Amino acid sequence: MPERPDDPGSPDLRTLAVDCGGGGIKANVLDAAGTAHATAVRVPTPYPLPPSLLVDVIAQIAERLPPAARVTVGMPGMIRRGVVVHTPHYITRSGPRSRIDPELAEQWASFDVQAAVRERLGVPALVLNDAEVHGAGVIAASGLELVLTLGTGLGSALFHGGRLAPHLEWSHAPVRRGTTYDEYIGEVERRRLGNGLWSRRVVALVDGLRPVFWWDRLYLGGGNSRQITPSALERLGDDVVIVPNSAALVGGARAWDLPLT
């Protein structure tokens, strides 16, 4: 009997992978091997962004891509079992670093994105933190692997033996007085400092975290990983791997195979 496209073991299984960032929302349809079957679609993240609008945007993007049997959404913040505990950008009036809108914060708190996307698209849905989805696309599933994504802010995901650890928003912790890791290494500071000085901060970040995690491998991804200067790359160490931002979509196909806790 031929395998159905919605059979989890079928190589023809298609996944709509959606990467929701602070500045843009990107998506594509991939098969079980992570091969794209269309040109990726990217739209600017609209603000203000209530939950219903994000679901609408995902549905509109899905209409521009080939059919898929399931959907994976990666979004910033603390997500537990598809439910938003906290999201940093989408509760603001006009995007990252703008003022928080109390009404939006209330709408996003405890919002079940996974159920809303599943109901709207009519297919099984999986919603995780965006760095966790990114990590699913790159990890070797061996040893302790830390994934850091460099973009609007700093995203992170930790895996041990391929198993996803509970998410920690330690990027909101202070790296120095009055400055969080997000603010220290995020896009605003990269633009202010330039790639050279910003890359030195990336090296300092890695050196500071190495004795905390004692990872076997550290993956640096996200849109800004390609902005790290060659001299900084040489100083990062052999246990650090730079990965392409496309992993955020490849991970959408592979995240379903993660042994979630």
From TrEMBL:
Domain of life: Bacteria
InterPro entries in UniProt: ATPase_NBD, ROK
Gene3D superfamilies per record: 3.30.420.40
Family that this chain belongs to: Belongs to the ROK (NagC/XylR) family.
Name under which the protein is recorded: ROK family protein
Organism: Oerskovia douganii
Lineage of the organism: Bacteria, Bacillati, Actinomycetota, Actinomycetes, Micrococcales
